[in-house]
Every structure is written in structure tokens, then in C-alpha cells.
Amino acid sequence: VIKVLFFPPFLSDCTTIEDLEKAKAPLLDYLANAGCLRPLWSIRDRDLLVQDIVMFQVIHRVQGPFQRFHEGLKTLGVLEKIQKHPDSFRPLFCYEPSPLTADQLDDLFAIRLSPEGSNKRVVEEKILAFATGASVVPPIGDDDFSSTPLFPMANTCVNCIRLPPHASYQLFKEKFDFALGNTYGFGRA
Predict the structure, then answer these.
(1) What span, in angstroms and rounded, lies between the C-alpha atoms of 160 and 175?
(2) In angstroms, rounded to a whole number, what is the distance separating the alpha carbons of residues 54 and 48?
(3) Interior CA angle at 79 toward 73 and 81, to 5°?
(4) Count of Cβ atoms closer than 10 Å to residue 11 Cβ
(5) In a domain? residue 4
(6) Number of domains in the chain
(7) Catalytic hit among 14, 36, 94, 157
(8) Are residues 67 and 89 in the same domain?
(9) By CB atoms within 10 Å of each CB, which of 12, 84, 97, 189 scores lowest?
(10) The domain that contains 124 carries what CATH number?
(11) Are 130 and 163 members of one domain?
């Protein structure tokens, strides 16, 4: 049974014609705009109504924008190039999951503060203080940043993991795997 995701009671859950009429009442404007108004003579009409709604949501609602997109791609011959070289355009139109790399992870969490002394920097430091509860180096310290450690380090007291940079992803992976495999309980590798 397809669940039509509107406010409860869901149309697809109705078991009596009375419940169905009650569930349909707040949706009349939507059903009229979707072209899904139909008389409900029996509970079997529920499934036809649900099919109409699904057809509208999945097909008809997007058909116009899709056609305009299609026509737009024809401009300057883009559609023709896509049809001739589909594999070249696939990454632009289709999501393909790929393994997360160390560089991608680094890019996700890069801190980019505004210049010191600027008004934006003051606000950013306030946000940092709010998020971490500290506006200065914590009393437990931050380890020595002057030397780069060989292995990742974690501090469970402040929910922090430190991932040192390496020359290659393979080297990073080896050091990370070693650290995970050789750390027991509270400790560091």
C-alpha cells in the first residue's frame, strides 16, 4: 500500500468511506489543482485516488519543468552532445558515491577565519566560544602544534580527533589503521 504523505489520517490508511471523506476534505484545493478530484463511492475508490495523487506528484508535476529543461539543453546543441557522449556528462547529472578521501575530509572542515582585527573575526570568535565553550586554549592544553605527530590522536575529554597531514592518502591510511589497531581504552598511539 502506498502511503500518501499528508497530515493524518492518511488517505491510504482509511478503511471506511466516512474516514476517506474526512481525510480528503482538507486536501480539496490540492486535489483540484492536481486534477485528482474524483467522486468516492466506495472504499475501493481510495486506491484510485491514491494512484492519481502519486501519478501527479511523480510524473505530471515535473513534466513541464522537465520539458523546459530539455528544450534549454537543445540551445547551442548541448542536448545533442549529451546524447553523443553520455558517459562524459554522467557525473553532471547522476550522483555516484565514491570513497571519502583524506583531502575531501580536510576540505570539509577547513577553518577560514576573517582577518584579525576585523568585525567579522570578532563575531566568528564569539561563535567559536559558543560552540566550544572556550574562547582561549583549554586549560588541559592543545598539545604541541610546533611538531607534526606521525599518527592520529584522539582526546575523548573534548571530543577531538587530530589527523596529521601526510604526503599521500595511502600513507595517511596506513598510519590511521595502525593507530586504530594499537590503541586500547583511553590512550594514544
Answers:
(1) 18
(2) 10
(3) 135
(4) 22
(5) no
(6) 2
(7) 157
(8) yes
(9) 97
(10) 3.30.2410.10
(11) yes
User: What is the residue whose three cell numbers read 590511521?
Assistant: 176
Amino acid at 118: S
Q: Is 36 annotated in the active site?
A: no
Residue 143 sits in the same domain as residue 178: yes
Residue the block writes with cell 583549554: 138
76 & 122 share domain: no
Domain that holds residue 177: 103-182
The amino acid present at 113, given as its one-letter code, is L
Q: Which residues in the chain show pLDDT less than 50?
A: 1-2, 5-8, 137, 139-146, 186-189
Residue at 1 is within a domain: no
The three cell numbers of residue 66 are 522537465
Q: For residues 172 and 139, give the distance between their C-alpha atoms in angstroms, rounded to a whole number.
A: 30
Record the pTM.
0.41
Name the amino acid, one letter, at 159.
N
Only one residue has cell 547522476, namely 94
Rounded Cα gap, residues 154 and 33, in angstroms: 56
Q: Give the Cα separation of 27 and 37 in Å (integer).
A: 10
Residue 187 lies in a domain: no
CB atoms within 10 A of CB 147: 8
Residue type present at position 168: S
Residues 114-162 have pLDDT tens digits of 888 888 888 777 766 665 566 654 544 444 444 567 887 777 666 677 7
